[in-house]
Amino acid sequence: MARADTGPDFIEALARGLDVIKAFQPGRPVMSLTEVATATGLARPTARRILLTLQDLGYARAERGGFALTPRVLELGVTYVRSMGLWEVARPHLEHLVAQTNESSSIAQLDGSDIVYVARVAVPKIVTLSVQIGTRFPALQTSLGKVLLAALPPEEVERVLAEPSRSGIEPRWRPGAEEREAALRAVRARGWALTDEELALGIRSVAAPLRDGLGNVIAAVNVNAHAAETSVAKLTEEYLPLLLKTAGAISADWALYETVPQVTAS
Description:
One of its GO terms (biological process) is negative regulation of DNA-templated transcription. By secondary structure, the chain is of the alpha+beta class. It folds into 2 domains: 12-69, Winged helix-like DNA-binding domain superfamily/Winged helix DNA-binding domain (Arc Repressor Mutant, subunit A), CATH 1.10.10; 79-259, GAF domain (Beta-Lactamase, 2-Layer Sandwich), CATH 3.30.450. It has helices at residues 12-22, 33-40, 44-57, 79-84, 86-101, 143-150, 154-161, 177-190, 232-259, and strands at residues 60-63, 66-69, 104-111, 114-121, 136-138, 193-196, 203-211, 217-226. It starts with 11 loop residues before the first helix and ends in a 7-residue tail after the last helix.
């Protein structure tokens, strides 16, 4: 049904697509086709076509018998991050961490076999690869990605890594299945991850998980350094304790944020 009070240039199909994206409210990360159709007031065939189009474009994916949005929605703007409130919660902690280390710090989430950066506080240093909000890298070769992959069941890791990367990056480290699983087991055992020029020359980082109030990993946070300036020892002995403290503080604040009713004033 066409909307009332719209002009001749109004594109109904675009509006319906945005309605489908907005149907995924907090607490409803996965929705069935019927739920999406009900929430948007669209006919099931229309909702299905829109969801499949979003899936083809990389903005949605099939999950647990329904559909879920992907972090690629960030490419439409910062709506994805602000809808979570993650940036508002994490920003003061990231800024404090960067002030302590004089190194850049970022938060990323998993999108298929890639990570996508959703928050960042940077220092002006020359690095091999440029990073900004929405940048994606192959997950396995990054400390952020290792943390996120290690949080998945082993069979899910296989499925995720079978998806082709959309980053356009050719990583230096290409492990076999046995070496890869050993690396992820180590991350699970110690609770943090290290990468040493596995993605590209000069890039070295450590990362830790961010968790919700139920202990689920919702994202990962890192400290990124240039290999020519920062040794592995300095990264793990000096920066890692600060990073783990920061990750704990963000996770605690996020758990508190989840308990506060979010009210929008009319």
